[in-house]
Design goal:
The structure holds two protein chains of two kinds. By secondary structure, chain A is an alpha+beta fold. Chain A is built from nine helices and 17 strands. Chain A has two domains: 234 residues, Aminopeptidase; 88 residues, Elongation Factor Tu (Ef-tu), domain 3 (Beta Barrel). Chain B contains nine helices and 19 strands. In chain B, the strands form four sheets. Chain B has an eight-stranded mixed beta sheet, sandwiched between helices. The chains are: A alpha+beta, B alpha/beta.
């Protein structure tokens, strides 16, 4: 069944997909795009490729969005049945306390708790709880009990439900980067005017790994990474530290931790946004990066860049996105593809 | 197990100190299954009166005791949960908070909350992404003053809907873990409200002479304020506070934490009348209720603290079940413990005689 934008975001963000275990997300995406592609296949790492418009003239465009999310991995069961875990990808341990999680593909509910405030000394309360002091509690009575329900190596993801928040915003886990996946999904449903390859990539959160091999395989003329990015337009954060503003439109990267924007791509994106009257903003933080850093250095180098949706509280259990930014990102990417087909940027 | 679903409903309801109405209404309805004499007092405490089943026995105790020939027992369980309050609306429409009840601010990052303004609004307590924080910053804990609620609304709209003083409660659907364990917010102390209900349920099948007042109290989390007026009004022979205690967890002392699923803890110490303690322990032993003894060394952080000093003094007892992760949104308990604690209280009440009451002032 073809899902609406909102339902697509709901199902994608509630799906489980830690780095290396993206199966649920991949299966959902395949069911949503396979009817629109000429060829839909996976590689040895688990990247999902969707080819379209191979008979069309024009540049071969690779559009990618990573499927994986930051998560936890169960690595040990204590005698008392509590589970020790480690992070898969970048998680600030401070957001973990008092959060429910789902463990394993069977979604076994668990919670991450800590010693009650009553029993903490004043100096303990001033220190963040690190991962070594935290456990996932699935309610098991003993090690044996725990291991009869979970396997070591099982991943745990936040149990956050997707929901509408405030004025046209949504809250969910893993909007980074299921929102990008949803954008790519919607783009792939629009008839291709040039040859294009949509790639849902694996293992971005552990080092842009899926994108590196995907770009080598595709060897595109142009690549656009569809992502989410830092949005810290909140109280106490000065303007220069905000990164992006919620509702301000898709964000274009000038410079991040690993890339300097291709100036032609940036100019093309800006020109297109202005021509189609789509709001856009520049991403105003230097740190962080995304798949385009890996794609840019594939083979002899790839031209392109990234288009990102502002998301508040990236990598936290509850992330916030404006639906208007999401829709404007779809519009901008669609417009850029159309302009390319029309010869708007003769590469 | 009759009240498991009632308990799950109670966990989902918002009810911080001073605005327990939604919780009180649900408890009022639940009490009506056991008595028609349910009322709410000026502060919002919900009192259910279940008279002793036996006819008063002629007594030679004296004229002044004639109207109270049956033991009068108060079971007090607070129904409020720790909550927050809006103190200021910052530019951008972000809300600053003060607490009503003791939070560990570290448990609030990335927590969803309900803001009870002109409308009930869902909000998120923001957390800086790791991309922006330095490793030094990640070694610091936020204080409540650093935190804010994000309603994802324009500032003007926030100012229309929210005012300083509006209440904020944790948003958390309860989760069922393995082995009958339940996790959510407000188990402290709705677990004890469920104990009261299970006790009344069990008491139906027992003959008891004691007049029982089962009371859901208000404002415990800000200083046991509800219980103090209930104690004064009823002046029971025995006042039992029912409140949660700590379940065992790595890094906690063995004398102040108890295994989940191994029955209630009966408190011993200066805040508890020694004969009430002995009576509770005897009832548990006689009726094979598994239990632990919780050793306390001073006034406890429960309604028993104020009940003991009510009027000319009340004979107090304290029982409760252990929960993990107290005062956050994933407090965890076992429903079997709730049932067993209810059974303990029912047997204690059924076994109680006026002779026991007589003995309370004999040292």
């Amino acid at each position: 069944m073809l899902l609406s934008s909102e339902e697509l975001l709901r199902q994608l963000t509630e799906a489980i997909g830690p780095s290396g275990q993206e199966d649920e997300v991949r299966n959902l995406l395949r069911s949503q795009v396979s009817g629109w592609t000429e060829r839909c296949y996976t590689d040895v790492l688990g990247n999902l490729f969707c080819e379209q418009g191979s008979d069309k003239p024009g540049p071969r465009v690779m559009l990618d969005a990573h499927m994986d999310e930051v998560a936890l991995m169960v690595v040990h069961a204590e005698d008392n049945g509590l589970l020790k875990f480690r992070a898969i990808g970048g998680i600030d341990p401070r957001v973990l306390v008092a959060k429910p999680v789902y463990v394993g593909a069977q979604r076994l509910p668990g919670v991450i708790g800590a010693k009650p405030v009553h029993l903490q000394t004043a100096s303990e309360r001033r220190k963040p709880l690190n991962i070594e002091q935290l456990y996932i509690d699935i309610g098991a009575r003993s090690k044996e009990d725990a291991l009869s329900h979970v396997q070591l190596g099982d991943a745990a993801v936040f149990a956050t439900r997707f929901g509408i928040l405030g004025d046209g915003c949504v809250k969910a886990k893993s909007l980074d980067n299921r929102a990008g996946c949803a954008v790519l999904c919607e783009i792939l449903r629009i008839p291709a005017e040039t040859p294009r390859i949509g790639v849902f990539t694996v293992q971005e959160e552990v080092g842009l790994r899926g994108a590196a091999v995907a770009a080598y395989r595709v060897a595109p003329d142009l690549a656009i990474t569809l992502e989410t990015t830092v949005c810290a337009d909140v109280t106490d954060v000065p303007g220069h530290g905000q990164g992006t503003v919620l509702g301000g439109g898709p964000a274009l990267t000038v410079q991040d931790g690993q890339t300097l924007a291709n100036q032609q791509f940036l100019a093309f994106a800006v020109r297109t946004a202005e021509r189609f009257q789509i709001p856009y903003q520049f991403r105003r933080v230097k740190g962080g990066t995304n798949n385009f850093a890996a794609i840019q250095r594939s083979r002899a180098g790839v031209i392109g860049g990234s288009v990102s949706i502002p998301v508040r509280y990236l990598h936290a259990p509850v992330q916030v996105m404006a639906l208007q930014d999401y829709h404007n990102t779809v519009r901008l990417v669609q417009a850029m593809l159309h302009e390319l087909a029309e010869g708007g940027w003769p590469l | 197990m009759r009240h498991r679903s009632t308990f799950m409903e109670l966990l989902a309801l918002p009810g911080g100190p001073g605005f327990e109405e939604a919780v009180a209404e649900r408890i009022h309805r639940a009490f009506l299954a056991y008595t028609h004499q349910v009322e709410t007092d000026h502060m919002g405490n919900v009192l259910a009166y279940v008279p002793g089943s036996a006819t008063p026995v002629p007594t030679d105790l004296g004229e002044h005791l004639a109207p109270t020939v049956r033991p009068r027992v108060l079971l007090a369980a607070h129904m409020d949960e720790i909550a927050l309050m809006v103190t200021r609306i910052e530019s951008g429409g972000f809300l600053r908070l003060a607490q009503t009840g003791g939070f560990d601010a570290r448990t609030l990052l990335s927590q969803e909350v309900w803001v009870h303004g002109r409308q009930t609004l869902l909000g998120v307590i923001g957390a800086q992404p790791p991309h922006l924080s330095t490793s030094e910053e990640r070694q610091q804990t936020p204080s409540l003053d650093d935190l804010y609620v994000d309603l994802a609304l324009p500032e003007a709209r926030v100012r229309e809907l929210v005012r300083p003083g509006d209440r904020v409660t944790l948003a958390r659907t309860p989760y069922e873990l393995l082995n009958g364990r339940i996790s959510g917010k407000a188990l402290d102390n709705r677990a004890s409200v469920a104990i009261l209900l299970e006790c009344l349920e069990h008491l139906r099948s027992l003959r008891h002479t004691a007049d029982v007042w089962a009371v859901a109290t208000v404002q415990e989390e800000v200083g046991m304020r509800g219980a103090s007026v209930v104690g004064y009004r009823l002046q029971p022979h025995i006042a039992l506070a029912v409140d949660v205690t700590f379940a065992e967890f790595p890094g906690q002392a063995p004398d102040e934490s108890f295994p989940l699923g191994s029955g209630p803890a009966i408190a011993f110490g200066p805040n508890v009348h020694p004969k009430v303690f002995a009576g509770l322990r005897a009832a548990a032993t006689r009726h094979r209720v598994p239990f632990h003894i919780e050793f306390t060394q001073g006034p406890t952080g429960t309604d028993a603290r104020v009940l003991q000093l009510t009027a000319s003094g009340l004979a107090t007892g304290l029982v409760g079940i252990p929960i993990r992760y107290m005062h956050c949104s994933v407090e965890t308990a076992v429903y079997d413990d709730i049932v067993e604690c209810g059974r303990l209280l029912a047997h204690y009440l059924a076994d109680l005689t006026m002779a026991d009451v007589e003995g309370l002032t004999c040292y």
